[in-house]
Structures are given as structure tokens and as C-alpha cells.
Amino acid sequence: MKKQKLYAAGLLLLLLVWTSGCKPTKEINAPLSLTWEMGKIHPEEGTYENSFILKNFSDAPVGKDWVIYYAQLPHHIQQETSSSKVKVEWISGTYHKIYPTAEFASLAPGDSIRVTFKCDGEVPKTSHAPEGSYWVSRSGAGKGQPLPVEMRIIPLAPTKAQTAFLHRLYETNARLQQHPLQELRPVDILPTVKQAIPAEGEMLIENKIALSFHKDFANEGKLLKEKLEKTYGLEVATEAEESILLEYLPEDQEVPNDEYYELDINNRQAIVKGKTSHGIFNGTQTLLAMLKGQGETLRLQAVSVRDYPDLLYRGQMLDIVRNFTTAENLKKLIDITASYKLNTFHFHFSDDEGWRLEIPGLEELTSVGARRGHTTDEAECLYPAYENGYDPNAPTSGNGFYSRTEFIDLLRYAAERHVQVIPEIESPGHARAAITAMKARYEKYIGSNPEKATEYMLHDPQDSSQYISAQWYTDNVMNVAMPSTYRFIEKVVREIKEMYREAGVPLTTIHVGGDEVAEGAWSGSPLCMQLMKEKGMTQMHDLAEYFITRVSECLQQQGISFGGWQEAALGHRTETHAALAPRAGGIYCWSTVAEWGTDEISYQIANNGYPVILCNVNNFYLDLAYDAHTDEPGHFWAGYVDESKSFSMLPYRVYRSSRTTMAGHPVLPDSMEIGKTALTALGKQRITGVQAQLFAETIRNYQQVEYYTFPKIMGLAERGWNAHPIWENLSGNTETQAYEQDLVQFYRKISQKEMPHWVQNGIHFRLPYPGLCLKDGKLYANTSIREGQIRYTMDGTEPMEDSPLWETPIDCQTEVVKAKLFYLGKESMTAVLEQ
User: Fold this and answer.
1) Per-residue pLDDT for 17 more than 50?
2) Cα 436 to chain center, whole Å?
3) What is the DSSP letter of 185?
4) Are 692 and 315 a contacting pair, CB within 8 Å?
5) Could you tell me if 189 and 753 are in contact, meaning their C-beta atoms sit under 8 angstroms apart?
6) Dihedral of the alpha carbons of 643, 648, 649, 654, in degrees to the nearest 10
7) CA nearest 481: which of 544, 422, 439, 425?
8) Which helix (H) or strand (E) segment is 708 a member of?
9) Using CA atoms, how far apart are residues 315 and 338, in angstroms rounded to an integer?
10) Rounded Cα gap, residues 58 and 70, in angstroms
């Protein structure tokens, strides 16, 4: 914030800049600042109070000709409860505005005004606080030009839920610590290998190793060489005392699947064999993983490994719409996840808040749809959302797209690592960016070329439908009765297919969304009503059924299968299911929360003939917060997800995958399957994979992408490779003991091998905060990362690396205890325990 005595001079400079048509060389803030604090919670009515304090920090009175815009994750504004001088309105999605009413006269220098209003829901996390605020003057110098508004967030107090989580975390850690620690062998990696028979001896690698490979495995040899040199500092030569060989398995040898490999290590050689280059790649990743956590002298234990995955689809979805990130960052993420043998990247490039892929011939998709900033008509950019603010040209997480060239390069990069990229064209819902871009195209050409203006229109101008989507949009659904909608889909598909052809990479599946079409969409469209009459449709769902059927036909004609969220395979007629199921490359099922009563959906869809990708929200949604800590970023609408939740997922016993409620209370796995839909024999064959989702509403940079991903995704890597853990078919206390012992070893692999590797390679990750408990006046603390140190304070200050080290129970009579976990030069968030 500028000092008050500089404000007048700054305003004069701004006036000169505007009148000269140049941009200011320095950013000048608005004369008002905002302070936000969480108000009173009203649990009986499901509301809370949002409170803003507007303060004039300038040297001059502020009149009424202004608007302040800000973003906040969707919460319906109920009513104002204070100050008739200022009004708060929701505009669209996360976009809101604050402005003076007729009763507002002016705000004198130094004066402030508080406005408090009720909203639906709750804000137990800082990541759901307002952000991205800016000011626009409605008169005088600089009219219509946005200025940043300084916003201060008053920290949220620890909640009862957070304290309860601390206690439960302590209890969980205490149970795990009762299990014996088994020493890790070099071959004890993630994901766990199927079979490892140790042999006598070891290969000692000091600084040089030879590498040779069959010509068909030149790509895998190149990648292995790069890792050995870059990560482990080895000289890779054609001759050396120790060597690595990449070879074919015998042609007549039968293998479980194409990803099978064998790895045999003796004192001098490491031989990787496979039937395919993918199998060879998997073997090299195991070889590299065995080197993790070692010192300067590298050792490979003599061993015979036989290994393959249980599920052939092991994926991650990243939303680059809400939070745009560069192609280089995506390459880094793909490289890391491929090292854990994940083989699919779900490219979520289109949604309500943006379109992130260049499509030749539809330049508005990126010239308008890839930019967010201040606008009154969205002719040149979309409304702001989240924290990105008002400048559509700024290098923020709200702006950007991948050029054709960049995407083709990304496809090749992923293919080298045996990762298929599945693009997602969100439709017919979640399509606001595309709809708005095509509206801008219409306005651009309607005067000169009406045919071109309407060629790819996605909305019906006569549509009076009223609806609000899950993300609070009223205009985000494509009109499924318009031929131009299908011309648009076909055009985008053709261009994407051409990019894959140019990259030399097969395009097998396009994900078409199909989810969260709001109730009421299409009901006011004359075109949709006419289509329903012509086709004999009797309910609004028939329109969605018509759309997915027609789009799947379009893809089938191009030799491409369709993917979709679970709604794409729900509620259709029998004959429609019979037509759709053979065209499906995967139905992505996420609604697996028992408390919602929808946890049978994934098995019902598999039994109904569709291939199913399990995307369990309570196991695999990376954007759900790790826990209830107020400063832990992420969503909480389906509970909390950490690495133990992803680890506990069972693809073929899905109801036992949730070991807690959404609030974190333990449940008995044995009780969760009673009366639920069972997989048929054919249905079991249709469980084809698992996938983690990282939606980005609460993400603001790539570092946060890694924070949300690691270590949370390690459970998915393990379960996709090993779908049948030893505790899968056990019950009662026997099952609990086996599960917890397995989880202990999982944490040891993460802390002893993966975390040091992540530090070495610049990969950001999360440390859990300690579990805390007060018993009989003594403080107890523990952690799942046993190599770490717990440091604490009792005077209200933040724990530092030189704060007292917790080792044994200590007397504690203070009102507040704060503790952190320290490990590998990193620290956790602060655990706060109040008496």
C-alpha cells in the first residue's frame, strides 16, 4: 500500500498517464483498502457472515462513483445485515462487486465502513477467503480504468474440527507406531514390485556404468542415460566393469500383460527384459528407484524381479483452466509421475473459466477464452475469477494457452515416457469459456459475414432458461439442439486429431465431460423444445442423452472412443446404453461417498457394460485438503484426502475404500459392503483403471500443484499397480493389523526414499503436521514421518528449528501449544492445540 502522503502525487501521475495514452510505469493502488474477516457462523440455518471493512487511506474524501470487484469461491449471498450505504452483489461464478448505494455520501480520509452480509455455506479455510480485488472509478480522471485494491485477510481461528483432527491424528499415529519397523531393502520401492527374489552379492557403482540396448529400445535407453547422468552423476559409457542391458524377452514366453518386465541384477550386470518398450521402460524405472536414498557410492542389490501392473490405466488429471501453468511445468509433472509408472495424463484444458488450447480457425477460443480480466461485455476476455485480477495480458494464473506447437511437443514428450494424453472437451455443461468465445465471434462477424458469425454458435439467443450451475454460472451449457454446436465439436475434434497425427502419437480417446448440467438448462430454449417434440422426448434428460449419443457417434466415425464423467452413462434408455457402451473408452466414476448414498454408481456402471475408471472423490481427489487445518489449502465438500486415503483404496472392494466418514471419524470396513451392488464377473473385467483428479479452484501456482500431488498421489501409484493388497479379503482385527502394518511400510518408503529424492530434484511436497494430545496435564506428540523432528512452543510463538524438541511427554499447563514437524530442511504447518 502506498503511503498516504504519496497518494495525491500518484493520482496526478496517473491522470497524466491516462491523458497521454500510456501505461503507468508503477502500479498505483486505489484509495480504498479492504479487510476481510470471518463473521459469525449460523449452523442452524447453514449460513455464515462475511465481513468487509472498507477504509479510505488517501488524503482526500472518496465519493460514491466507484465499484470494487473481488473473487470468492461460490457462496450464495443471502442478505445484508449491516450498512445500507454499501451493497454487495454476486455477478458470475466467483466474481462479485461492492459499490455504494444512494445513501452513501462520501468517506473521509482515515474513515472506514463495515459491511456484513450472510452467505450460504461456511469458510473454515483461508483458501476460501476473498481475493483478487480491484477498484474501478465510474467518473472523473481514469474512469473505467482498474486499480488494485489492497486486501488484508484476518487469520481464521483454529476450529473445533481442526482440534479434533489433531487428536485423531495422534491416535492414528500411535496405533501405527505399535507395529514393528521392517528394514527397507533397495528393492522396496513405490509402487511395490510383485516379486523380488534376493540373491547373493551386489553391484557397486562408483562413477561409471556401461549401457547397451536393443535398437527397438533406443528411446528407453536415452531416457535412462539422462537420469543416470543428471540425477546420480554417473558417467554412462559403452564399456565399463558394471553394465545395464535392455533386451527382449523370449518370443514364446507368455506374460500377464504388455507392461510386464523382468529385472535381474548380479555383481556386474543389471538386465532389463520385456516384450514391449513399455515393459522395458517400467523396468528402468524400478532400476532407478532402487538407487534412491543412497549416498555417493551406489549399490544395486542382487535380485530377480518379476513385475507388472494389475490395472492398465493409471492416470492423473490436471485442471489447467482455473490455474494455468506452462508446458515446461507439465513436462516436469509428467516426468515425475511416469517415474512411478503412471501411464495416463488427463488434459483438462477447457471449462467455464478458460480454454487453454489453440484451435486453428477458432482463434476466439484463445484470444477471448484464454484471458481473464476487467470487462463489462466479455467481448475481448472473460470475467476475472479467483485471484488473477483485472489485467487480461498479465502473466497470471488466469491467462495463457498452449499453442499448437507446444501441445504437439508435449504429446511427443509424454509418449516418450509411455504416457498417453487424453484431452477433455468439457460439454455440454462447464462450457462457459467456449460459449462466450463463440458469442464474441458472432459479434465480430455478424455485420460482415452472417454465415461465419453463426457457424459455430453454442447458445440460442432466444433461450430464456434460468439455472445456476454447481460453480454458480447461469450461462455455461451448450445448446444441444443447434447444428452449430455439433459443427463446433467436430471442428475441435478434427484439429486435435491433426495435432496427434503430426506428433506421431495415436489418439484413442477424447473425454467429453458430460457432467453437472444444471437443472433448468434448455427448458427455456425454443429450439430445444422443438427438438424434443420432433424426437418424441418426454424429459429434459433426453436432451443430454441425445447429445452424448450424437457426440459419441461423431468420435466413432473418427476412430476415437469417448470418455466422460459418470453422468455420461447414467439414466439412459436401455437401447442407448447398448449403443454407448461399446463406444466408451472409459467412464470416470467419482461419487463414492457412502454418506451420500451414491457409492454404488461405479459398480452399477461397470455391470451395465461400460469400462470404468475409478476416480473416487474420497480417495483420489487431490484438490481436497489434506486435513482440517484452517491454513491447509483445498476443498472440503467431500471430506479430506491425504496419502493414507489414496493408499486405502481397493478397486475391487470399493465400499471398503473409505475408512473414515467425511468428517474424519473412523468406520468399520466390514460394515460398508452390506446390501451394496456387487460386481458381476463381467463388471469386474470392466474396472480398467484408477485416476487422481487435481481441480485447481484453490491453486495459484505450479508449486501448489506439486504440494497437492506429493505425497498424496503415491497411494494411487501403489494401488493402480497392486490392486490386491494382502488385506483386501481379510476382515475384523486381522484386516486392521495387516492394513496398518502395510501402511507403516508405505510411510517408510515415502520418508526414507521419496522425500529425499524430491528434495534432491526440486519437487515441492507436503509434510504432515504432528498429532497432538493432552493427557493428565502432559503433552503428547507424534508423527507418521518418524525420521522428522517435532518442535514446539508454549508461549504462543511459531515453532522454529531451534525451538524445544519434543521427545517424551512433557508437563503442559499453558493455554496454547504450537508444534511443527521438521524434516529435510522443510517444515509442516503449525499444529495449534488450545486448552
Assistant:
1) no
2) 24
3) P
4) yes
5) yes
6) -150
7) 544
8) helix 702-709
9) 10
10) 21
CA distances to 203, 227, 248, 539 from 261, rounded to whole Å, are 20, 19, 9, 52
**296-324 b/e (C-beta count within 10 Å ≥ 16 → b):** eebebebbebbbbbbbebbbbbbbbbbbb
Residue 564 C-alpha cell reads as: 466422460
Residues 6+ apart with CB under 8 A from 583: 552, 553, 555, 556, 561, 562
Q: DSSP assignment of 600-652, as one string?
A: THHHHHHHTT--EEE--HHHHBTTB-SSS-TTS-SB-BTB---HHHHHT--TT
Q: Which of 49, 71, 813, 709 is nearest to 335 (CA)?
A: 709
pLDDT beyond 60 at 5: no
Taking 3-state DSSP, the helix, strand and coil percentages for the chain, each rounded to the nearest 5, stand at 30, 25, 45
pLDDT tens for each residue of 390-437: 999 999 999 999 999 999 999 999 999 999 999 999 999 999 999 999
**What's the pLDDT tens digit per position in 432-483?**
999 999 999 999 999 999 999 999 999 999 999 999 999 999 999 999 999 9
pLDDT of residue 26: 47
Give the count of beta carbons closer than 10 Å to the beta carbon of residue 154: 12
Q: Is 561 helix (H, G, I), strand (E, B) or coil?
A: strand
Report residue 326 as a C-alpha cell. 506452462
Cβ neighbours of 731 (radius 10 Å): 12
Q: How many helices (H) and strands (E) does the chain have?
A: 21, 34
C-alpha cell at 569: 452413462
Q: Please state the length of the chain.
A: 835
User: Which residue(s) pair with 69 in the sheet?
Assistant: 97, 134
Q: CA 690 from chain center: how many Å?
A: 15
Contacts of 504 (CB under 8 A, 6+ apart): 412, 415
* DSSP three-state, residue 375: coil
Alpha carbons 4 and 499: distance in angstroms, whole number: 55
DSSP code per residue over 302-366: EEEEEE--S-SEEEEEEE-SSS---HHHHHHHHHHHHHTT--EEEEE-EETTEE-B--TT-THHH
- The phi, psi pair for 746, rounded to 5°, reads -60, -45
CA geometry: angle at 701 spanning 476 and 360, to 5°?
A: 50
H or E, element range at 586: strand 584-589
Instruction: Report pLDDT for 121.
Output: 84
- Does the pLDDT of residue 9 top 80, yes or no? no
* pLDDT on residue 293: 86
In DSSP terms, 457 is beta-bridged to: none
CA dihedral for 520, 524, 529, 531, sign (positive or negative): negative
